[in-house]
Specification:
The structure holds two protein chains of two kinds.
Chain A: H1 5-23, H2 26-43, H3 53-74, H4 107-112, H5 117-128, H6 133-140, H7 144-162, H8 177-184
Helix pairs in contact in A: 1-2, 1-3, 2-3, 5-6, 5-7, 6-7
Chain B: H1 2-25, E1 31-36, E2 43-47, E3 52-57, H2 62-72, E4 77-79, H3 85-95, H4 113-121, E5 131-132, H5 133-139, H6 146-154, E6 167-168, H7 181-191
Classes of the chains: A mainly alpha, B alpha/beta.
Chain lengths: 186, 195
């Protein structure tokens, strides 16, 4: 890429912060944000001009957050997670396999494993990463409409598994902003 | 939730500042820029590791100037940081009338060939004085290259620091200026001897 990196930070800083916060908390999220953009800054001049920058950044952010969780897994163990928290605990994952922790506080992450790959990708990128469906479609393939449908189906499936609002959600129904709050709080 | 968005904006601002510091500490900050107010409008000041690369007026389109620097120098560009503090201080002093020449290093890699020779010679025209395009052409060893001197001044990558505003037409009128003719008048008036 040959455009100034500043524009990347401005355009995607908020999304990267959402991803880091979804996986980590407090200073951990802030450090992961910094490390994400520092890594991106190193690679920026070599990134192909047709790359999907937001998808690339979300991938780096996820990896940075997981690195931090692995590091914590080898050291301290967080014990102050609230009920309903979607933050990933490192507890019991010193092996480095932390992508889907099975902590009791992490029903959402466990439920995500029950989705199809496509639904999970769409739900994480759109509802956790804050990526618009049009961009999600560019990452996972297919149309924005199909991505929206996979996201809605995924959320409906999550609600069934998690036992909240299960009957009230017809699959395929487009959802709005409040859905994210409900999922996060599920 | 506007309050949350305000908090996020504040947090992102802080994160951005930390990012610039860390990038500089790791040698990743090839180019930084700041935009400052001045008597000749908003000025874009762009600095590389070796000196000031670019000063641009608002009429020159700051976004386009940054895109050009990204392509020709490096796209590793972030706004802010301490690197430009010395030149911004000198610009303040200059506009206050307290500084007559700039001491900060200038990186002339965005000017090449004869244009570079011309702009490099501009500090020889003293503060408060003017030279004609023809005189500058003669001083750079190509007395017939009057038009080329005009072009070189118009393309000066670091106006103000290298004072192309002191180069005027043979009839004494100010002539063209990258920042616009009114800006050239403001600068010549600023430098005019008083009393």
């Amino acid at each position: 890429m040959r455009e100034p990196f500043e524009g990347v930070v401005r355009a995607h800083g908020r999304t990267v912060l959402a991803v880091c916060r979804a996986l980590l908390r407090d200073d951990g999220a802030q450090d992961a944000w910094s490390e994400t953009f520092l890594s991106a800054l190193v690679a920026w001049p070599a990134l192909p001009e047709d790359a999907n920058v937001e998808a690339w950044l979300v991938t780096i952010a996820r990896r940075k957050a997981l690195d931090e969780l692995r590091r914590r897994g080898r050291h301290a163990v967080p014990t102050d997670l609230d009920d309903g928290d979607v933050h990933v605990a490192a507890r019991g994952h010193a092996s480095g396999s932390v992508e889907v922790p099975g902590d009791r506080d992490l029903d959402l992450w466990a439920a995500l494993t029950g989705l199809s790959d496509r639904q999970r990708q769409v739900v994480v990128l759109h509802h956790v990463g804050g990526m618009p469906y049009a961009d999600v479609a560019q990452v996972v393939g297919g149309s924005a409409v199909a991505a929206r449908r996979a996201g809605a189906d995924g959320v409906a499936a999550l609600r069934r598994v998690l036992g909240t609002h299960g009957r009230a959600v017809p699959s395929g129904m487009p959802r709005t902003h409040d859905e994210r709050t409900e999922v996060d709080g599920a | 939730m506007p309050e949350q968005e305000r908090d996020d904006a504040r947090e992102l601002q802080g994160l951005h500042e930390t990012l610039v510091e860390r990038a500089a500490a790791r040698g990743l900050l090839d180019v930084t820029y700041r935009v400052v107010d001045s008597p000749v409008g908003a000025l874009l000041v762009v600095g590389g590791e070796r000196g000031v690369l670019r000063v641009a007026f608002e009429v020159q389109d700051h976004e386009a100037v940054l895109d050009d620097v990204a392509r020709r120098v490096s796209p590793r560009i972030l706004q802010g940081g301490a690197r430009l503090d010395p030149v911004l201080r000198e610009l303040d002093e200059y506009f206050a009338g307290a500084r007559h020449r700039f001491d900060v290093p200038v990186d002339l890699r965005l000017a090449t060939g004869f244009r570079r020779d011309v702009v490099a010679a501009l500090p020889d025209v003293p503060y408060g004085r003017t030279a004609t395009y023809a005189q500058v052409a003669a001083a750079t060893g190509r007395p017939r290259a009057v038009r080329a001197v005009g072009t070189a001044c118009a393309r000066n990558p670091v106006p103000l620091l290298l004072p192309c505003h002191r180069v005027v037409r043979s009839d004494g009128t100010p002539g063209q200026y990258a920042g616009g003719a009114p800006a050239k008048r403001v600068l010549l008036d600023l430098e005019a001897p008083r009393g």
